[in-house]
Each structure stands twice: as structure tokens, then as C-alpha cells.
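ok trying this again, last paste got cut off
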Amino acid sequence: MTRSASQLLFCSPSEILRGAVVERDDLNIITRIFRVDENPVESAQTLFFDGIISGEIVSLKQNVSNEDLTYKIKDYNYVDISIGVPDIKRTDKPLLLDFGIDSFDEINSRLTLYAAAFADISMFDLIAACVFYPALAIQRNADLAVGRQSELLLWENSDLLSKRFTPAVRVRKI
């Protein structure tokens, strides 16, 4: 068992927990999610992180064919981050950002490079656009919940008070 905790746990756009712990087994299956203050004593072997924990980033370009991509994105404000500076227009559809890669070095490089384009996006909207909505688009379980197998990501260096993106934001696997 591994336990990871942080100030914020992004389970879904409608469920963001403060001071929560995610417990996973050796197969990365989430066995428990609980608030740190629910236990009278600190959980043994809990790793505490500074930032926001979420599920894994999903790239539609890596998971569906080009002909299926058009169908999968019809209900989303799809922005392809892999082809240059993104032009993020506000629409009534949920934002879906596609890095087209799974290298954290490249993703972090693009987060820095395109920081101005992300400046008006809340951290929760950014995480939902990279993690939650792409998973939904390809009919994967999108919620971070008990019973789900998931890698965990840590989003560091965001402004946790205002929940805003900063140019220093980095993401890494934990």
C-alpha cells in the first residue's frame, strides 16, 4: 500500500477534496480516499506533497485514430497543444487540452512555453482539460475514485490560494 496526500485532491471537476489521502495497492488500484483529519493519528507511510494530486493526463491523439478524433471531440472545446501556441477560445463546451505526448519533460516544457495562453485558466479547469475530459471522451473512467486503477500526478507550483496557473507549474508522477 502507498498513501499520498496533498492540500488538494482533484477527483473530478465537481469533487475537489482538501487535505485528502489517496491509498493505492501494488497494482495502482485506489483502495481508499480519506481526509487527513479523519484519522486520530497520522497514517503510517503517508507521503505528503505540496500541490494538487490528480489522475493521469490523457492524450486523445495517442488513444484514437485521426478519423475517430473528430467524432470524439465534438462535445468539447478541443485544443491541440502539440502543434504550437494554443489559441484557447472560450466556448460553452468543456475545454479539452491534448499534449499529444506522455513525456513529463515535454509537457512541462510546453506548460512553461505556453504559460501566457494558460494564464486565464484556473488550475482546476486546466487539470480537468488534461485529465478528466479526455478520459471521458474516450469512455474511460474519469473520476479519481475507490476501485479505479490510476497513476497519480502532482501539479506543483500553482497559486493554491487563488487556484490559478503560474508559469512555474510543473507536473510529475508520484
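PB: full thing came through this time. The chain has a mean pLDDT of 92.
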